Structures are given as structure tokens and as C-alpha cells.
Amino acid sequence: MVSDFFTRGWARFGPDPQVRLWADVALRVGRAALRDPAFSHWHVCGGTWFVGLDALPNDAEGRVAGSGPLTGPAVDFIKDHLGGLPPLHRGQLSTVFPGYPRPREGEGEGAFRYRLRSDAAHLDGLKAAGPDRRRRIDEPHAFILGLPLSEAAPNAAPLVVWEGSHEILRAALSEALAPHDPADWPKVDVTEAYQAARKHIFETCPRVLLPARPGEAVLVHRLLLHGVAPWSEEGASAPDEGRMIAYFRPLMPGGLAEWLHAR
User: What is the pLDDT of residues 27-68, one digit of tens each?
Assistant: First the structure.
């Protein structure tokens, strides 16, 4: 498992009964979040995606609505092999519905075409800003932990990863940042390096769909290119709350240098 994770850039764990109990509690909270006016701005893409950033009111150990702390094989793996479990932020409740994707508000034709044909593939932590959408490293996450909350068909807009892409992106970003003082790395424009690496990834790395069920967990390497597949028109099904996954992306305790160079 350890070797596979660092080679492929992802791992799936479970099912685990304690994770399933946690997911059942989080799902009840998630259903309420979908209806909460405070989160209405997260309903995007013509109502086919609830982004749900910070919509899960968990504490730093993952407790939510009276549940116990977040545990399970994925958490054990993080503690044993990824430097420990940092304090958790409020989780994202990424929820997708039939018809995804539709154009996101303000999204141009090219951007929507990329969402539709390339799963909106991206590297977390790179933020595009300004009229030219220049990218800089803004949030060095430690990992991406996904915990499915609702029962959904495997073709109901699953998570997508490009296996092995983390090492391609590591090399490309390392080369782009090498001429600069590490203190200045957050200011360095890495747009060209990122786009060239992404093109190479599409041409060479396997595209892998990672559907999962409540009680399971998906762990994604912080540098892995990933996205969301379109909702299939061929019999994909999900309950009224859609395909809901809770995501945690705590920041890397060692900052940007560790984000780039740690295993």
C-alpha cells in the first residue's frame, strides 16, 4: 500500500465500520447544508454542483454533530506515512447532481469546454488570478482526503486522477522555482510550467476514475492532478442529496518547501 500510494499518487481504503458511522452523521449535516441560505452561493454550474467549501462544521479532529473523531485506515496511513494528521479545517461538502457539468457563472466557452472534456483537471493550491489567470502557489496542502457520504452509482461524476502525475508536476514546479529565493516562491508565476506539465500528463498518464462508497476513503497525493468526471447519461443514479463527498485538505505544516520536496 505504501509503495503503491507514492508511485500512483492515490489509495482507496475500506470499507470501515467506524468511517461509515462518521459518514452517516456527516451526511445528515450535509443535507442541511444544501438547504442553508448561508451556503446558497455554493450552488453553481446551473445547480449541478454544490461546491460546499467550509460547509461541514467539524472540529480539528473531525468531530461533527456529536460524532467521534475522524478515524480509520486512511487516517492511520496519514499518521504513519505522511507526517501525521494536522488539525483539520472545516470540511468541504462537494456535491454533484445529474446534468453536471453545466457552465459555471462567469465561465467562458474555453473554460467550460475544459471542464467538460478534461474533467476540470487541476492541482490544488495553485490559484489563478487577474485577467490573464496567472497561477501562483497559494495553498500548500498536505494531502487530499475524500470521504464519500452518499450512495451513488460509480458513473455519477466520480473523482478522476491522473496516475503518477504528481512526480511530473513536482519536477516541473521545482524547475520553475529553482532560480528564485524560497521566500519568494509564493510570488513566482508558474503558469507556463504548470500548463506544459499538464499537457504532458494528459498525453502520458493513465486517467483513473475513483468512485467510492460511504465507509470508504480516498487519499490523494497533494501534487496529483485530479478533477471530476461528467455525470454519465447512462443510468447514473444518486439520492436526492446527489453524490456528496467530504474533503479535507489541511495545510502542510512545513510550508511550501516541504510541499514541493517531501515524498
Answer: 999 999 999 999 999 999 999 999 999 999 999 999 999 999
* All cell numbers assigned to 52: 460546499
188 found inside a domain: no
Closest residue by Cα to residue 177 from 245, 259, 97? 259
Dihedral sign, Cα of residue 39, residue 105, residue 119, residue 87: negative
User: 172 and 197 in contact (C-beta within 8 Å)?
Assistant: yes
236: cell is 447514473
Domain enclosing residue 41, as ranges: 2-164+208-251
Number of domains into which the chain is organized: 1
Question: CA 259 to CA 253: how far, in whole Å?
Answer: 9
- Three-state secondary structure call for residue 174: helix
Cell matching residue 23: 459518514
Residues 145 and 53: their CA atoms lie apart, in Å, by 14
Residue 189 belongs to a domain: no
Short-list 143, 89, 178, 164, CA closest to 262: 143
Q: Is residue 187 part of a domain?
A: no
Terminal-residue alpha carbon distance, the chain:
15
What crossing angle do the helices spanning 165-177 and 191-204 adopt, rounded to 10°? 160
Q: How many CB atoms lie within 10 A of CB 76?
A: 13
pTM score, two decimals?
A: 0.97
- Which CATH number characterizes residue 217's domain? 2.60.120
Residue 173 lies in a domain: no
Amino acid in position 251: L
Extended strands (E) in 71-153: 92-96, 126-129, 134-137, 144-148
pLDDT digits (tens, 9 = 90+) for 27-36: 999 999 999 9
